[in-house]
Design a protein that fits this description.
The structure holds 2 protein chains of 2 kinds. Chain A is built from 9 helices and no strands. By secondary structure, chain A is mainly alpha-helical. Chain A has one domain. In chain A, helix 2 packs parallel to helix 6. The longest helix of chain A has 30 residues, at 87-116. By secondary structure, chain B is mainly alpha-helical. In chain B, 80% of the residues lie in helices and 0% in strands. Chain B contains 7 helices and no strands. The longest helix of chain B is centred in the last third of the chain and has 45 residues, at 199-243. The chains are: A mainly alpha, B mainly alpha. The interface between A and B is medium-sized, with 29 and 24 residues. Chain A: It holds the Pfam family CcmB. Chain A: This is Heme exporter protein B. Chain A: Belongs to the CcmB/CycW/HelB family.
C-alpha cells in the first residue's frame, strides 16, 4: 500500500498537471476576485475567507478525475482491484496521494493568497488549521465522486454536479471558522464539526468508493 | 408487508397496480382537490397574515413531500442493494423527478409567501438554503441515472449515491443552521405542542397533506409502470436485433 502511495505520488509529480495545476488555478482564482469585486481592501477582507475556501474547493475538484480515470483507461485499475490488498485500501491510498499533491500545497499557499486578499491578521491561524483539517475530506469525498463516474465517457461535468453538493458542509464549517476567527469569536463548535466530517469521510467513504468501483468494473 | 417482496416480480406488480391504480388515482384526486378547495375557500383568513395564509396548503405539504420522497428513495435503494428487487430500484428512479418538482414547488410557493411576510423573495435562510441543496441532490441523482447505459449498473451506482447523499443532505441541513440565522418559524405542526395552529387551519392542512401523499403514490406507481414497460420494450428490441 505504501508502494502504491509512492507510485501515485511520483505519477502525480512527474506526469505533469496534477501537482502544479491545482495551485496555479487557486492563484488565478484569487487574482480574478479583485477584478470582479473591485480592489477595495475592506470588501476583500470581508469575502476573503469564503473566496479562499471556494478556491480550495474548486482547485480540488479540478484534479479529481485524475484519481481513477487514467488507471481505468490503461487497465491498471483492474489489476489493482485483483491485487492482494483490499480495494478500500487502494481507494484510501489514492485519495491520500490526491490530498498530498493538491490539498497540502493549497494549505501551504493559502496564507500568501490570504495576504493578497487582505485577510484579517487573526484569521491566518484558523485558515491554515481549517484547510489542514478540511482538505482531506475534500479529497476523500472527491474520490467517492470520481469512483461513481469512473466508467462514464463524459464523467467530468457530471462529477462536479455530484461532488459539489457533498462539499457544502465542509465549506460552511471551514469558512465559518475563518470568519469567526477573523472577528475574534469562539471557533470551537464549527471546528469540531468540521473535524468530525473529515474523520467520517476518511473512515467511511473509501468503502462507498470501493463499492462503486467494483460495480463499474463488473 | 409480504406484497412488497412479491412485487419483485414485475408481472405481479403490473397486475396489482393495474387493478388498484384507478381507485388510488380517484381517491387522490378527491382528497387533493378537496383539501386545497377547503383550504383556499372555506377557511377564515389569519388575523395576522391575512389571505396569504392560504399558500400554506401548498407550501407545507410540498415541502414535507420533498423530504419524504428522498427518504422513500433511500429505502427503495436499500431494498435494491440488499435484495436485488428490480421494481424497487425503478421506483426510486421514478420518484426522483417527482421529488425534484415538489422541492421546486416548495421553493416557489415559499418565495411567493416570503414577499409579503418577510419583504423578500429569497433570503439565505437555513431552511431555504437546505431545500436548494436538496434540489441539487435530486438533479445530481437524476443526472447519474441518465448518464449510465447499463440499467443494473445505473441502479447500483445511484443507490450508493443516494445513501451517501442522504448523510450529506442531513449534514448540510444542520450545517446551514450554523452558517446563518433564519427567518423561518419553528415547527408548527408537531403533535404534542401547545403552540399548534388552530383547528380551522389544521384539518384542511391535514387533508391537503394526505392529498399530496396520495398524489405522489399515484404518480410514482404510474411512472414505475412506465419504467417497467420501457425496460420490456428494450428487451424486445434487443431480441429482435439479435435474431436479425
Amino acid at each position: 500500500m505504501i508502494r502504491l502511495l509512492w507510485r501515485d505520488l511520483t505519477l502525480g509529480v512527474r506526469a505533469g498537471g496534477g501537482f502544479g495545476l491545482g495551485l496555479g488555478f487557486f492563484l488565478i482564482l484569487v487574482t480574478l476576485v479583485p477584478f470582479g469585486v473591485g480592489p477595495n481592501a475592506e470588501n476583500l477582507a470581508v469575502i476573503a475567507p469564503g473566496i479562499l475556501w471556494i478556491g480550495a474547493l474548486l482547485a480540488c475538484l479540478l484534479s479529481l478525475d485524475r484519481i481513477f480515470a487514467l488507471d481505468f483507461e490503461d487497465g491498471s485499475l483492474d489489476l489493482l482491484a485483483t491485487a492482494p490488498i483490499p480495494l478500500e485500501g487502494v481507494v484510501a491510498m489514492k485519495a491520500l496521494a490526491h490530498w498530498i499533491t493538491t490539498g497540502l500545497p493549497l494549505v501551504v499557499a493559502a496564507p500568501a493568497l490570504g495576504f493578497l486578499l487582505h485577510l484579517d491578521g487573526a484569521a491566518y491561524r484558523w485558515l491554515i488549521i481549517t484547510l489542514l483539517i478540511g482538505t482531506p475530506a475534500l479529497s476523500f469525498i472527491g474520490a467517492f465522486g470520481a469512483a461513481l463516474t469512473v466508467g462514464l465517457k463524459r464523467g467530468g461535468l457530471l462529477m462536479s454536479l455530484l461532488v459539489l453538493p457533498l462539499y457544502i458542509p465542509t465549506l460552511i464549517f471551514g469558512a465559518e471558522v475563518v470568519r469567526r476567527g477573523a472577528d475574534g469569536f469562539l471557533v470551537t463548535t464549527p471546528l469540531m464539526m468540521q473535524a468530525g466530517i473529515s474523520a467520517g469521510s476518511v473512515a467511511l467513504l473509501p468503502f462507498a468508493a470501493a463499492a462503486a468501483i467494483r460495480i463499474a468494473l463488473r | 408487508m409480504n406484497i412488497i417482496w412479491e412485487w419483485a416480480n414485475p408481472r405481479k406488480f403490473m397486475a396489482w397496480t393495474d387493478r388498484a391504480l384507478p381507485t388510488i388515482a380517484v381517491l387522490a384526486a378527491i382528497v387533493f382537490v378537496g383539501g386545497l378547495v377547503w383550504g383556499f375557500f372555506f377557511t377564515p383568513d389569519d388575523y395576522r397574515q391575512g389571505a396569504t395564509i392560504k399558500i400554506f396548503y401548498l407550501h407545507v405539504p410540498s415541502a414535507m413531500m420533498a423530504i419524504n420522497i428522498w427518504v422513500m428513495m433511500l429505502v427503495t435503494s436499500l431494498i435494491w442493494i440488499v435484495r436485488r428487487h428490480h421494481v424497487s430500484a425503478l421506483a426510486a428512479k421514478a420518484a426522483a423527478p417527482i421529488g425534484a418538482i415538489m422541492t421546486l414547488i416548495a421553493l416557489f410557493t415559499g418565495a411567493i409567501w416570503g414577499k409579503p411576510m418577510w419583504g423578500t423573495y429569497w433570503e439565505w435562510d437555513p431552511r431555504l438554503t437546505s431545500f436548494l441543496i436538496l434540489l441539487l441532490f435530486y438533479i445530481g441523482y437524476m443526472a447519474l441515472w441518465e448518464a449510465i447505459e447499463n440499467p443494473d449498473t445505473a441502479a447500483d451506482l445511484t443507490s450508493v449515491l443516494c445513501l451517501v447523499g442522504s448523510v450529506f443532505a442531513l449534514l448540510s441541513r444542520y450545517a446551514v443552521n450554523f452558517w446563518n440565522q433564519g427567518l423561518h418559524q419553528g415547527a408548527s405542526l408537531s403533535m404534542d405542542e401547545k403552540e399548534n395552529v388552530a383547528d380551522v387551519f389544521w384539518y384542511p392542512a391535514l387533508m391537503a397533506i394526505a392529498g399530496f401523499v396520495l398524489l405522489f403514490i399515484t404518480l410514482v406507481l404510474l411512472r414505475t409502470r412506465t419504467e417497467i414497460r420501457q425496460r420490456r420494450l428494450q428487451a424486445i428490441e434487443m431480441r429482435e436485433r439479435v435474431q436479425g
